[in-house]
């Protein structure tokens, strides 16, 4: 049964903005960053007519968490599912939002996501169907981190010798607003204005006694975050479009690419306002905390709370983060039971490496680079020669590799080869974290899968044991998600059904890490993909619509 059409017309362009009081070039949609929120009901068709008004830069937009069943060509992943949208061109995305929940969209070409090209997708239940929890109001916020350097400077540093690391972000944004300290030494006068209204703190106004569903999404470039509202507990009820068996937290850990819904009751002293705070975890960061105002009506929305903002958990408290991950289970009555066994297990060792002097990230010592001709078109039209044909490895040297130490041999190889999955098979992915090239250092990586939700089967510390660890999998009520983190020196096991014909990226959602090769691509059921729209073509070997056969 067909839903409504939700039609959007967007123009993407550069503009000067001061989201954290510091003026810089941002990429906006219809003049805004975050971009407009897509509001739809389950089974509606979303149509976005996207005009690229960047003068010299390509764009593509990924609809994060939307599975694109039957429309794999509209996943918006440059190099995987489409050619980039050229400056001056208009591209029409058209897809069905088949499940209620909280999703995202963002640029998926180069690194422009972190210049502001992102927003939310909210999919409501159809009329007459109710949620398994109740609330008075429904609100949403996007959490982000923010750099002052352009994405060009950052990307160039990452691919240079010597390596130029992007470093810690200058500020944290809550729904597009942050506050950089304009009296920081070295800041050019005129570039930073602490009284610019663009950077006044974001205000969430609440009526005393009411319960709010707050949808919280993270689109950080780098940072793992903790979010809390001073003096208020939060009950977690949804993540990535799936209902969670409710549990109460004081602070929520959230990784780039994840969404959560929490319930918050405005049940504290109503004569004052409270701080909403984000702070960086998992990195020993210098970035100041992000602040917003949780405003009890009718107090003035700009009145600062009378208290010092809470500091949040310490950056290296891995146990608390792991505890939250372990607490997340599918809600009773809404459990999608996982297949009890899998057909294939792929272990993915996450390492930092060096190739010809370049710093890279790798999976099983293979560092990913995108081909210029998108896989979807190449496979459908049998242009086999446009990417490497040797399949990437399903594992690493389990016996000899020590995940706790700096690798004795850091050299890796480049590849743009893909994992080809048997259609309808059940696949297990074990994300195995390890030490980076720095001593005593392992980072958190949030991994995002396109085109599917997966079951989160388990999380653990140390080296995954093929024999004993699968015994601890949650085969009863695992949550389904599209993004999951692997903690430092830990492992995360996920399971999915390769049942969506197409070609799908799976990658670390840290912008710089994907840019540096931390990703893979899966193909399944390519013979079941329908005729491709010519609008996705025009680059590499697809140019001019005439296909060169090898
Ligand atoms: O990719 C990265 O590079 C730096 C650092 O490892 C460079 O030494 C860092 O923190 C990353 O996440």
TrEMBL record:
<keyword id="KW-0560">Oxidoreductase</keyword>
<feature type="domain" description="Plastocyanin-like">
    <location>
        <begin position="140"/>
        <end position="298"/>
    </location>
</feature>
<dbReference type="InterPro" id="IPR033138">
    <property type="entry name" value="Cu_oxidase_CS"/>
</dbReference>
<dbReference type="InterPro" id="IPR001117">
    <property type="entry name" value="Cu-oxidase_2nd"/>
</dbReference>
<dbReference type="InterPro" id="IPR011707">
    <property type="entry name" value="Cu-oxidase-like_N"/>
</dbReference>
<dbReference type="InterPro" id="IPR045087">
    <property type="entry name" value="Cu-oxidase_fam"/>
</dbReference>
<dbReference type="InterPro" id="IPR002355">
    <property type="entry name" value="Cu_oxidase_Cu_BS"/>
</dbReference>
<keyword id="KW-0677">Repeat</keyword>
<keyword id="KW-0964">Secreted</keyword>
<dbReference type="GO" id="GO:0008447">
    <property type="term" value="F:L-ascorbate oxidase activity"/>
</dbReference>
<comment type="subunit">
    <text>Dimer.</text>
</comment>
<dbReference type="Pfam" id="PF07732">
    <property type="entry name" value="Cu-oxidase_3"/>
</dbReference>
<comment type="similarity">
    <text>Belongs to the multicopper oxidase family.</text>
</comment>
<keyword id="KW-0732">Signal</keyword>
<dbReference type="InterPro" id="IPR011706">
    <property type="entry name" value="Cu-oxidase_C"/>
</dbReference>
<dbReference type="GO" id="GO:0005576">
    <property type="term" value="C:extracellular region"/>
</dbReference>
<keyword id="KW-0186">Copper</keyword>
<keyword id="KW-1015">Disulfide bond</keyword>
<protein>
    <recommendedName>
        <fullName>L-ascorbate oxidase</fullName>
        <ecNumber>1.10.3.3</ecNumber>
    </recommendedName>
</protein>
<dbReference type="GO" id="GO:0005507">
    <property type="term" value="F:copper ion binding"/>
</dbReference>
<keyword id="KW-0479">Metal-binding</keyword>
<dbReference type="Pfam" id="PF00394">
    <property type="entry name" value="Cu-oxidase"/>
</dbReference>
<dbReference type="InterPro" id="IPR008972">
    <property type="entry name" value="Cupredoxin"/>
</dbReference>
<dbReference type="InterPro" id="IPR034267">
    <property type="entry name" value="CuRO_3_AAO"/>
</dbReference>
<dbReference type="InterPro" id="IPR017760">
    <property type="entry name" value="L-ascorbate_oxidase_pln"/>
</dbReference>
<feature type="domain" description="Plastocyanin-like">
    <location>
        <begin position="411"/>
        <end position="525"/>
    </location>
</feature>
<dbReference type="Pfam" id="PF07731">
    <property type="entry name" value="Cu-oxidase_2"/>
</dbReference>
<feature type="domain" description="Plastocyanin-like">
    <location>
        <begin position="12"/>
        <end position="124"/>
    </location>
</feature>
<keyword id="KW-0325">Glycoprotein</keyword>
């Amino acid at each position: 049964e067909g839903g409504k059409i939700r039609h959007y017309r967007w123009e993407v362009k550069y503009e000067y903005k001061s989201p954290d009081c510091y003026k810089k070039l941002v990429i906006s949609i219809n003049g805004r960053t975050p971009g407009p929120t897509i509001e739809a009901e389950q089974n509606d068709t979303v149509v976005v007519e996207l005009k690229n008004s960047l003068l010299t830069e390509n764009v593509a937009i990924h609809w994060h968490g939307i599975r694109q069943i039957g429309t794999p060509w509209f996943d918006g992943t440059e190099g995987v599912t489409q050619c980039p949208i050229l400056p001056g061109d208009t591209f029409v995305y058209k897809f069905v939002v088949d499940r209620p929940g909280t999703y995202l969209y963002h640029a998926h070409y180069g690194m422009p996501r972190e210049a502001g090209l992102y927003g939310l997708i909210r999919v409501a239940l159809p009329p007459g169907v109710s949620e398994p929890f109740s609330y008075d109001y429904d609100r949403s916020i996007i959490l982000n981190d923010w750099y002052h350097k352009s994405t060009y400077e950052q990307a160039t540093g990452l691919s240079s010798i010597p390596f130029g690391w992007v470093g810690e972000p200058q500020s944290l944004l809550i729904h597009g607003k942050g506050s950089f300290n304009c009296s920081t030494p070295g800041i050019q006068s005129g570039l930073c204005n602490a009284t610019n209204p663009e950077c006044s703190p974001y205000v969430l106004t609440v009526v005393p006694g009411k319960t709010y569903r707050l949808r919280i999404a993270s689109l950080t470039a780098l940072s793992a975050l903790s979010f809390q509202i001073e003096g208020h507990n939060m009950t977690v009820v949804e993540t990535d479009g799936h209902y969670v068996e409710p549990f109460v937290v004081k602070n929520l850990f959230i990784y780039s690419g994840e969404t959560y819904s929490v319930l918050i009751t405005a049940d504290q002293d109503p004569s004052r306002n409270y701080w909403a705070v984000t702070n960086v975890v998992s990195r020993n960061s210098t970035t100041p905390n992000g602040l917003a105002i949780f405003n009890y009506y009718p107090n003035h929305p700009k009145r600062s709370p009378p208290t010092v903002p809470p500091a949040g958990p310490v950056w290296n408290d891995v146990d608390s983060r792991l505890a939250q991950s372990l607490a997340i289970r599918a809600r009773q009555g809404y459990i999608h039971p996982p297949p009890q066994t899998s057909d294939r297990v792929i272990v993915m060792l996450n390492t930092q490496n060096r190739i010809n002097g370049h710093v890279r990230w790798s999976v099983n010592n293979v560092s990913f680079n995108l081909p210029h001709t998108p896989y979807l078109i190449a496979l459908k039209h049998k242009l086999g020669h446009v990417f490497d044909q040797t399949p990437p490895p399903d594992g690493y040297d389990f016996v000899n590799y020590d995940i706790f130490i700096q690798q004795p041999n850091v050299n890796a190889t480049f590849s743009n080869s893909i994992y080809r999955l048997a259609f309808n098979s059940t696949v297990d992915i074990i994300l195995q974290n390890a030490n980076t090239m720095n001593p005593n250092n392992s980072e958190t990586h949030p991994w995002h899968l396109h085109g599917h939700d997966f079951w989160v089967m388990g999380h653990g510390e140390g080296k995954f044991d093929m024999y004993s660890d699968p015994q601890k999998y949650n085969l009863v009520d695992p949550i389904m998600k599209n993004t999951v983190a692997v903690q430092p020196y830990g492992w995360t096991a996920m399971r999915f059904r390769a049942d969506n014909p197409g070609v799908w990226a799976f990658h670390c959602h840290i912008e710089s890490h994907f840019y540096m090769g931390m990703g893979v691509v899966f193909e399944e059921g390519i013979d079941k993909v329908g005729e491709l729209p010519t609008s996705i073509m025009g680059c590499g070997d697809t140019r001019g619509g005439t296909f060169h056969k090898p």
